[in-house]
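request received
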Amino acid sequence: MAFTTIDFLIFFCIVFLVYYALAYFPFTRGKGLQKWWLLIANLVFYAWASPLNLVFLCGSSLAVYLASLAIEKRERQLQADIAQADKAKKKELCAQALRSKRVYLTLAIVFAVGLLALLKYTNFVLSNVNAVAAWLGGELSLSVSWILPLGLSFYTFQNVGYLANVYWGKYPPQRNFFLYLLYISYFPHVLQGPLEEYEEVAPQIYAERTFDAPRAEKGLVRFLFGLFKKWVIASQLSVLLTPYISGESEAYGVIVVLIGIGYAIQLYADFSGYMDMAIGCSEMLGIRMAENFDTPYFSSSIAQYWRRWHISLGAWFRNYVFYPVLRSKGLTKLRKSLKKNKHLSSALPTAISLMVTWLLIGLWHGADWSYILHGAFYGIIITASTVLEPVYAAFEKKCGAVAKSKPFALFRVLRTFAIVCFGYLIFAPGDLSITAEWLTNLFAGADLAKEALSTMWAEHDYGIVCALFGTLVLFAVDLYRALRKEKPALGMQRSLPRMAYCLLLIVAILFFGAYSEADASQFLYFQF
Amino acid sequence: MERNEIFEKLNEIFRDVFDDESLTVTEETSAADIEDWDSLTHITLISEVEDAFDMKFSMKEVVGMKNVGEMADIIEREA
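response:
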């Protein structure tokens, strides 16, 4: 059920009303029923498109839940055993317990990630087998038509993160499976994230709460701003860009540049718009969710951009891939063996771990070589900036005044945005042959590009104006936040301007939104 | 090892990693207070601290440390 449908509007009104009614009716108040109501809502929301989806969600969560209990049980047994053991025995018992806990962890992760790999990547593997067979002169057309449950990549990662933390002893496991399922399936985050830490969000979901009008108002404003981003910017741009991204129309010269810039705006409006709607809904229920964007297109470097774009995915890969790989026995040994060269001993293991992480981030986005290349593209840039750090430091020392000047800061922001737009030429079509065609045509066909622009304007002049208007509003809001160094705010502080702002947003959505031309109920990140 | 000795050594490491001779960390100093303290410098910092105090942080500590005070607590316990 997408946030932009009438189904969702009706669903959310019912959820909202019953949720707060349970906190006020004398016979339901104080009985902790709100969380069970939320669980029912989550399951209905998730099963709306296909009830079969629930099997995967529950199966993956159950495997992780059972493993978390087994890990905790083994830890308790260890504590009881070592209480009476001497030092040598303690060491042996700890090693035994670690082995058992590692087995539980591995089994559950193999099951959960295996399910994701099987459903998401089987066709990718088979298409490569077919290609190799064709290259060898044979003919194969292997493929499967399995469904990919919505949100599988997101809840698998939440499951893995939770289990890793129980394994590391950061927090005890949740003993009630249905409460665990309530956290995993929480409807604002189940389909597209953000990937939230159990300890941050679960206590809020489980708590009983009464209606908080200012908070609900702020949530509503946030929801409407998300809807504005989706319908006025992303959907309008989708109408213009889809023919090129799907390979239906050929692009030349300036059109290729406009695709890069346009897709950067479309994806940002689409994904951050979804997040605004999710965070807004959750806020109306009194539950604060993690922020996923922090004015990413005002970043001065690619590393900074990735700390401000899809923040929760970056944090997940940092905690559960980058750090564990970098601290693995092999890379620790490598670091120690290079101890004589201080920079290299730190830079080389970091570079290896970064490349592994970025290739996996690329693969996570989709089962195609273009996504892997997109990950490698960022991996190489960030790794190069780590390895070449002494060169940058020397430049800053030599040209301190220039490096710290405002025009140079602006240049760095524009350079970062240009790199990101170039990356989208690899990422957007999900098909390297289209990317290759765009890059070949980049400096050709000026006349064709001019003609395509005239046709586009003649057919979609209103849509173009609406998209430009929406982008200007988004740019102004983000610029204000970036300059004020404020975290993304939930909404204005005073009630009257907030209501006026709400009305303006509704009017803008009604007049400038595209809900008939584009399939506005689809979100780009659903496919990942 | 005394707490002030730990902080003396930590200050040396922080100055070296962040290349800032004027840097002085306190119990409450966190990633939010030092502009360059990102995931890459965090892990470099962890490795340098481990080498200097001849100890090893667990993964729970690597991802869960909130400030330098917590880091010093772990060093006090482990080193």
